[in-house]
Amino acid sequence: MNLVIEEDTEVFQLTRSVTWQSLLKLREQTANDRIRDYFAQDPQRFDKMSLRVGGLFLDYSKHQLSDAVLEKLLELAHHSALVQRRAQMFSGDIINVTENRPVLHTALRNLGDQPVIVDGKDVMPEIHATREQIKRFSEAVRSGEWKGYSGERIRDVVNIGIGGSDLGPNMACRALLKHRHPELNFHFVSNVDGAHIQKVLRGLNPATTLFIVSTKTFSTQETLLNARTARRWFVEQAGDDADVGAHFVAASTNRKAAMEFGIREENVFEFWAWVGGRYSMWSSIGLPIALAIGFEGFIEMLQGAWEMDQHFLHAPLEENMPVLMALIGIWYINFVGAETQAIVPYDQALHQLPSFLQQLDMESNGKSVDIFGRPVDYKTGPIVWGQTGSNGQHAFFQLLHQGTRYVPIDFIASLKPEPGVEDHHFALLTNMLAQANAFMEGSQQGGDLDPYSCPGNRPSSVLLLDELTPRNLGALIALYEHKVFVQGVIWNINSFDQWGVQLGKRIAGEISERIDERSQDFDASTQGLLGLVRGHFKTDDKSAGKTTARKGSKANH
Ligand code: F6P
């Protein structure tokens, strides 16, 4: 029997809670507080508001947070379902209620010996089996034992995927470039724009190229079209369909569809429905990472994430890094009115981290109904954006310093310099610290009329990795996964479905199938624009979704 909440049932309303109301009052009382004054009032502020977990150090002292506000935010966490929902997630309960699934990306990096039960069965054996499959495969490709159709070793790896089947492995392979196999090159194709795959295929040798078709569902239009184009290119170049098996593997939950595409059963690296796409880099979606840095490196990355999991599970909320980051975000989003969260890695190797965190955060918490389907009356997930520093200083820091927007910033950097460029690293880190200080202090040079004056009082966290290693990267990503989870629990939303993206997919299918009709089903704008598009294409074979350019195309709207 499904639980039905009667409309008139008096249900708990977050914004009417005593704690929430107290936070609103605290906002009124502290709205004009200067962050710098908090340091003057408490010389121990930095020591009290910084935290080390493994190879990560978080300084959250430069936030517009009085002791009373932080205490009340922690009360919000204590009064929420956090402790219960956290236990449910790790144990495999069905917390993704709209898709009726557990959420078990944490099981993928479970390096302990406790079982994880799904549908009455311990899933750890199949997780271990897939890890072994990844180990064997990555060692064969990296050692040169894996040969292509000409008998040569693999030199180029092309990952074809989008969203969580691209962003995680792409970000990690870039972040860990210095750990990468010297004879392997990695390419990531995601956009359905043909220019993307054309650019990658141009200059590749089919005899030494391996394609990984990464797709949880094996039904995503962009990925299938790119995979078909890659296969067509390969067969045209290599001359034989039979060779596809030595050059195409798949990471998917859909073994049947992968094999129908032409991938050998033993080269399908399976994962499971209870792994969300944006949480899947720990699964066989992480195959490119294992190929790039080796299986041992991949396990080190899992180790770092597992250590962060243990911290998240066992540290008191007051000393819990994901919880503190989540609560700081909730303070700005729900009580200060910030609309966005900036991610500024002062680390060129992390330049794809903002894009990865965009999907992780915005696809998880970009929701407006709670887990019961009721519209919420408070803000939820922020707009997450960012770019590396020091580049951002020459792009958007002007707005952050003197604009009218209030944007909390996460600065992220690694302490250990690369040999030979220590002076660059010193400049990088000192620039970051200077910016965090300047955002807080501002500058009151010539009084209020001074055009150069910066109001300051703009908050930031500084997150330092001792070194950008697989282990610390794993911990960093798990940290943000759990931060997103904590915010979702406090907002009482489902962070693990993504119904909003299905709508666009459905309409894209309808439009592409009816390109030749003047359908009244679409609004006048879409019809008019389709008229312009229609002039350039004709559908040769609807079943294959094949369209070709119309010769001498003309606009016929
Ligand atoms: O963006 C929607 C989404 O379903 C993501 O959650 C997912 O990571 C991406 O599309 C790709 O899906 P798949 O891995 O099934 O191709």
Automatic annotation (TrEMBL):
<dbReference type="InterPro" id="IPR001672">
    <property type="entry name" value="G6P_Isomerase"/>
</dbReference>
<comment type="pathway">
    <text>Carbohydrate biosynthesis; gluconeogenesis.</text>
</comment>
<feature type="active site">
    <location>
        <position position="505"/>
    </location>
</feature>
<comment type="pathway">
    <text>Carbohydrate degradation; glycolysis; D-glyceraldehyde 3-phosphate and glycerone phosphate from D-glucose: step 2/4.</text>
</comment>
<feature type="active site">
    <location>
        <position position="394"/>
    </location>
</feature>
<keyword id="KW-0312">Gluconeogenesis</keyword>
<comment type="similarity">
    <text>Belongs to the GPI family.</text>
</comment>
<dbReference type="InterPro" id="IPR018189">
    <property type="entry name" value="Phosphoglucose_isomerase_CS"/>
</dbReference>
<dbReference type="GO" id="GO:0051156">
    <property type="term" value="P:glucose 6-phosphate metabolic process"/>
</dbReference>
<dbReference type="Pfam" id="PF00342">
    <property type="entry name" value="PGI"/>
</dbReference>
<comment type="function">
    <text>Catalyzes the reversible isomerization of glucose-6-phosphate to fructose-6-phosphate.</text>
</comment>
<dbReference type="GO" id="GO:0004347">
    <property type="term" value="F:glucose-6-phosphate isomerase activity"/>
</dbReference>
<dbReference type="GO" id="GO:0097367">
    <property type="term" value="F:carbohydrate derivative binding"/>
</dbReference>
<dbReference type="GO" id="GO:0006094">
    <property type="term" value="P:gluconeogenesis"/>
</dbReference>
<dbReference type="GO" id="GO:0005829">
    <property type="term" value="C:cytosol"/>
</dbReference>
<feature type="active site" description="Proton donor">
    <location>
        <position position="363"/>
    </location>
</feature>
<keyword id="KW-0413">Isomerase</keyword>
<keyword id="KW-0963">Cytoplasm</keyword>
<dbReference type="GO" id="GO:0048029">
    <property type="term" value="F:monosaccharide binding"/>
</dbReference>
<protein>
    <recommendedName>
        <fullName>Glucose-6-phosphate isomerase</fullName>
        <ecNumber>5.3.1.9</ecNumber>
    </recommendedName>
</protein>
<dbReference type="InterPro" id="IPR035476">
    <property type="entry name" value="SIS_PGI_1"/>
</dbReference>
<dbReference type="InterPro" id="IPR046348">
    <property type="entry name" value="SIS_dom_sf"/>
</dbReference>
<keyword id="KW-0324">Glycolysis</keyword>
<dbReference type="GO" id="GO:0006096">
    <property type="term" value="P:glycolytic process"/>
</dbReference>
<dbReference type="InterPro" id="IPR023096">
    <property type="entry name" value="G6P_Isomerase_C"/>
</dbReference>
<dbReference type="InterPro" id="IPR035482">
    <property type="entry name" value="SIS_PGI_2"/>
</dbReference>
